[in-house]
Each structure stands twice: as C-alpha cells, then as structure tokens.
Amino acid sequence: MKFTYDVVIIGAGVAGLNTALSLDDGVDALVLAKDYAWECNTFYAQGGVAVAVDDEDIPYHIKDTLNAGAGLCDEGAVDILCHEGPIVIKEFIEHGFKFDEDREGNLLYTKEAAHSRNRILHAGGDATGRHIHKFLMDLLKFPILYNTQVTDLLIKDGECYGVRVFHNNEIFNIYAKKIVIASGGVGSVYEYHTNARTISSL
Q1: Mean pLDDT (whole number) for 104-118
Q2: Phi, psi dihedrals of residue 32, rounded to the nearest 5°
Q3: What DSSP designation does 167 have?
Q4: For 26-53, what is each residue's pLDDT tens digit?
Q5: Which one of 64, 97, 159, 177 has the largest count of C-beta atoms within 10 Å of its C-beta?
C-alpha cells in the first residue's frame, strides 16, 4: 500500500466523488471511505436536486432558499450554490447522467417545499441520490480505501500535510500535498436523525 499522494479526499459521497471527478487524470489521488462507499447520505438521499432553470431564475432561487432558511443560511454559500448549481448539472449531463424527462424529452422540473416555481430535478423518481452516487462511482478513476477512519489531521505551520487513519486494526499516516475534507457532517451528535450511520464526528 502507498502512503504518499498528491491528493487525499476524505469521504466517498457526492462531495468527495465529485471532487475526484474534477481532478486531472495525471493526479495521484486516494479516496477514503469510513465504511463501504454506499454508506453515505448521498446514497440514501430521496427527493431531488434544486437548481435554477436559467440565469434569470438564479436571483429567485437565492431568494427562495434564504426565505426557507429563516435567517439560518450563510448568504455567501447560498449565492455560490445557486450560481454554480446549473453548471454542475450541465457537467453531469455532459458526462452522461440521466435526469427524469417529460414525454418530449425535456428535463422534468417539479416543485417542492418553499420553491416559488418548478426547479427540482429527479432521477429514478425519489432515488436521485442513489442514481447520482452510482454515476459518480462509475466515473471514479482513483482508488478507494474502504473501512478507513480518519482520526487526526497532520498539521505543521498551519498547513495540513496528511491524515492519521485507523484501518484493518492498524493506525498509520497517509501523506498528501492536498487534503480535501468531504466527510458529510456530524449528524450523529443528535440522538435521533436521518443521516447514514457513518455520518458522525467519530
């Protein structure tokens, strides 16, 4: 097993896998998964993906999102989400992903929650997350180290240069020029939640 890479990505959900998809073929990268890759929120996510229908819809998507957030949203993050969402969706389609379509073959936008217009895309009905996860796994060009728990970040002079992991009952270091944390949050701080069982701070 190798212990040095250009990039180490912590997490094998949509964030980690899409990050891997954006890397050049010549990059030496490794994806770390706490369990098997499908034990993540992406695989279990139902519903659809909210995305502006066109450029004119972006300000309204931002407004709807902020209204639904009731003051709890990071406005900068919402702005990035609503502006870059259509770009990512276009890239997915160009890579071969199939969202649900109407009878004429157009993208089938639906309306959910606090959205003021139809702007929700689905794949396989309510199995959108599962379809996206499988799609990204099929495109993955880098190895995944499964059943691997990151226990610490290796930091010196304010720069992260690696991770300490627990894998196969052993603790060891993996070094990289870049570390991407895409680990899915800390949903298990709550006693009751709907996150995948691997979504925790431990």
Answers
A1: 93
A2: -105, 130
A3: E
A4: 999 999 998 877 777 787 777 899 999 9
A5: 64
What is the Cβ-side half-sphere exposure of residue 123, based on CA atoms within 13 angstroms?
Answer: 20
SS3 content of the chain, % helix, strand, coil (to 5): 30, 25, 45
- Backbone phi, then psi, for 165, in 5-degree steps? -130, 155
Q: Provide the pLDDT for residue 201.
A: 54
The b-or-e profile of 62-80 (16+ CB within 10 A means b, else e) is: bebbbeeeeeebeeeebbe
Residue 31 β-bridge partners: 9, 144
Q: What is the pTM of this model?
A: 0.86
47-87 confidence digits (pLDDT tens): 899 999 999 999 999 999 999 999 999 999 999 999 999 99
Residue 45 phi, psi dihedral angles, 5° rounding: -65, 130
- Distances, alpha carbon 7 to alpha carbons 16, 60, 114, 161, 201, in Å: 11, 37, 38, 10, 22
**List of domains in the chain:** 4-42+140-189 (3.50.50.60), 47-126 (no CATH)
Report the alpha-carbon distance of residue 75 to residue 78 in Å, rounded. 5
What strands, in cross-sheet order, belong to the sheet with 170-181? Answer: 144-145, 29-32, 4-10, 170-181, 159-167, 148-156
